[in-house]
Design goal:
The protein has 308 residues and is mainly alpha-helical. Helices cover 61% and strands 2% of the residues. Helix 5 packs antiparallel against helix 9. The chain starts with a helix and ends in a 20-residue tail after the last helix.
Length: 308
């Protein structure tokens, strides 16, 4: 007896389930944005270590200066570097660099967000509060990392800077400064580094939620971003630009959430602090318990308030 119809039916169901899950994720993110927009800002306003806008401008100019200096002084040394490096170092970098892939980071976050959203209608009132608190945190992480990652992926293809492997075969004294605008080719998508943007956005976003792990997260981000130079996929200036863009964007997202007292609290002096989330016991009970909860008609869009 043929199994083709059954296989086709399973494939259709899988595609439909994937589409529904994606639609649910998009709906959750749009709902988070709508909630943030509707939620009023509160005083005191959050501060992220900058005393004024002038100080922020000075830091931005410093970053631009470092990128420009790296383009002129350091980048010319990179094309053809990979074959001269230790093979074990290159092999290690080739394994480590995948931690900067957006899919490696965003798939787990997206699936976790969908799972919690699917649980919400079956939970009791306290369970929904705990789930909403978790959704807020997962939403913050997903929005912070995915938005800037997608933006940089588009921008770098539009700018069309030749990667070191491509520049090695180009003629002229300044091959590292070759830009082929709107080329939309992988070999001309060097600036800024997407891996560096993603891994620094991830490190800063998680560090905002878990300040005690900040040093380890930043160290890992530096290591992963450095692999892009070791592998000859990017110039140092690409990595610096990606790190600066990812960091700046996520800090802006932290300020956006903190101003509305979602996920983050603000001290009297303006310092941003992560809100206390649900305890491990309550979190485990919500995620793994099969106890009956709210009726099926209950809404899964509970306000993103913090569970106590």
């Amino acid at each position: 007896m043929s199994t083709a119809p059954a296989s086709g039916s399973r494939a259709v169901r899988a595609v439909r389930a994937a589409g529904e899950g994606l639609w649910g994720l998009v709906g959750a993110l749009l709902g988070t944005l709508a909630y943030l927009k509707a939620r009023p800002k509160r005083l005191p306003a959050p501060r992220l270590g900058l005393s004024s806008a002038w100080e922020g401008l000075a830091l931005a100019l410093l970053a631009v200066g470092l990128i420009a200096a790296a383009m002129v002084l350091v980048d010319p040394l990179i094309p053809g570097l990979r074959p001269r490096l230790n093979r074990d170092l290159v092999a290690f970098a080739d394994r480590l660099t995948d931690l900067g892939l957006g899919t490696v980071i965003l798939w787990p976050l997206g699936l976790a967000l969908l799972y919690v959203l699917a649980l919400q209608p079956r939970l009791d009132a306290m369970g929904r509060r705990v789930a909403a608190s978790l959704v807020a945190r997962l939403g913050f992480l997903f929005m912070s990392i995915a938005t800037i990652g997608l933006t940089v992926a588009i921008v770098k293809h539009l700018l069309g800077r030749a990667r070191p492997q491509a520049a090695f075969f180009l003629q002229g004294p300044n091959a590292q400064l070759t830009f082929d605008w709107l080329a939309w080719k992988s070999s001309f998508a060097s600036f800024p580094s997407g891996h560096s943007t993603t891994v620094f956005a991830t490190a800063v976003a998680f560090a905002a939620l878990y300040p005690r792990a900040r040093s380890w997260l930043v160290a890992l981000a530096v290591a992963v971003a450095s692999t892009r130079v070791v592998l000859g996929s990017h110039y140092p200036s690409d990595v610096i630009a990606g790190a600066a863009i990812g960091t700046a964007f996520v800090l802006g997202m932290v300020k956006l959430f903190a101003a509305r007292r979602v996920v983050f609290a603000v001290a009297a002096d303006g310092r941003v602090l992560p809100m206390a989330g649900p305890s491990a016991r309550r979190l485990g009970k919500v995620l793994f318990s099969k106890a009956p909860g709210a009726p099926n008609g209950a809404s899964g869009g509970a306000p993103l308030e913090e569970a106590r």
